[in-house]
Amino acid sequence: MRITIFTTPILSPILHWLSVRMLKALGWTLTGAMPANTPQSVVIAAPHTSNWDFPYTLMVAFAMKLNIQWMGKQQLFRFPFRQLMLWLGGIPVNRSQSTNLVEASVQTLQQAHRDLHLVVPPEGTRSKSRHWKTGFYYIALGAQVPIVLGYMDFATKHSGLGPAFLPTGDLEADMVHIKAFYAAFQGKNPDQFVND
Hints:
6 helices; 32% helix; 7-stranded mixed β-sheet
């Protein structure tokens, strides 16, 4: 498993300390925690409506001492930023073609030798999207790891981790449960978040 900013010795504890203080100074409150005995998971990141979601997600992950990796469009990984984005925990996604991203993500989670939480924005874009992509669901189902409902509510400045559950294999029923949880939250650009 590659070294990321979250697993870099010495730097990681410093960034935890800085993130806790920065979020507090900005008026944010963190709630919830990763369930005990959950070394790997798929964490939903929603609502995703702004570029500001990225630095806040990193700070929340540091503040909560989570080792995360996240999926982003491959354009973010172009030269000269590729190595930086990989070090920040990024996994490039080519949205213009069908790939075996789900299978590769399943293998990454199954082969992890330390805690690893894969953060996936289900909208797949910060632009307005009427339908959530289901890759996160099939990754969790294939790896047999919980789905953790991570959120960032800009209206109340609350962020953190909500409930966790193992996907049942009934996508439609599970998505009703997931979307009900997110109904109360607002992204930075609330008109971009469609939860139906």
